[in-house]
């Protein structure tokens, strides 16, 4: 074996981790010399915006970069609404959703903006494995929920068809989030509290001596900070292709909006909760008080480039959504398709997030892999990442880059 190969083999994971920790400690030394830690956060979506705000409130100097604008329609955090619920098969997400909900409610009160709308969330389906896991974790976490017979749902809500549903679970304290408005509100709070917000495309610079040397700006300039957090949603893989090509894929997701009329439709618009049906396909929907019904299929679409994919919904997708909506809600059988959105999921092979230090750069962090369920967790996940950057929390193994379930895929 050549000498260089032997040296590489001697750099075991613990040794490499220790080396990166020591190099990252240089930033702490700078801070102890009398100036605040400077952190550059790239991406002002649900993950990046909240990370920047938590870092700022912890005393760091923070520069938040966004390529287009916070909550823009091309981003994964764009659009008008996102579901927030606690029904998960893993306890960590139940706890994170509960904490995130508290932070969303606090933000709504503090900023006097309707970021969280308590509409209740109804989960339905046949898969009792999901139900058993979710109920066990929710009970242990003290999350309020109610089991309903399908026939009870039909009695409560005229215009609802319970056919084919084996169980139904209702979370009265859950609901949905105003996504675009929330991203804008977090950005506004960040700026009002002293953060620096800048627009423009940036790229990570070279890694030199185990540290990221800075950010490359579009005008050829460079921004240097002590620590860097990349929370770029579907563009994260493009910024770090060699590292993340096998860990992330970006899928095309269509969302549809229908509007109906009549007394039963009005009653559904006013009283039916946010809903999700676990089955062969995973349909979910958000009824609005103005009679606009959002519906989407959570099944993963084809892999795409987020910068070049078509933003036009397909006729087949619209037809499938119309058919399901009319089946489950006969009162909406003649509803008109009034609009569509096309966004993307940034998917990891195991569906868990990435919130870890770059394995080759001790001062750089990667935050992403929302996998279609990340937005609701933004405040809690941003808080975790801020604490990791500041050395106050260890990386959660389930969100680490070295976890077994992340190694393959793509």
Plain-language structure description:
The chain has helices at residues 3-10, 13-32, 46-57, 91-111, 128-141, 150-156, 179-192, 236-239, 241-244, 263-271, 315-328, 378-389; strands at residues 38-42, 61-66, 82-84, 116-117, 121-125, 146-148, 167-171, 175-177, 196-199, 202-204, 207-208, 211-212, 215-217, 222-223, 227-230, 249-259, 274-278, 283-287, 292-297, 336-347, 354-357, 364-368. The two termini are 33 Å apart. Helix 3 packs parallel to helix 7 and helix 4 (91-111) packs across helix 12 (378-389). It is built from twelve helices and 22 strands. The strands form five sheets. An eight-stranded mixed sheet has the order 6-7-5-17-18-19-16-20. It folds into two domains: 11-74 and 180-247 and 350-406, FAD/NAD(P)-binding domain; 87-177 and 249-347, D-Amino Acid Oxidase, subunit A, domain 2 (D-Amino Acid Oxidase, Chain A, domain 2, 2-Layer Sandwich), CATH 3.30.9. Residues 1-20 have low confidence and may be disordered. 34% of the residues lie in helices and 24% in strands. The protein is of the alpha+beta class.
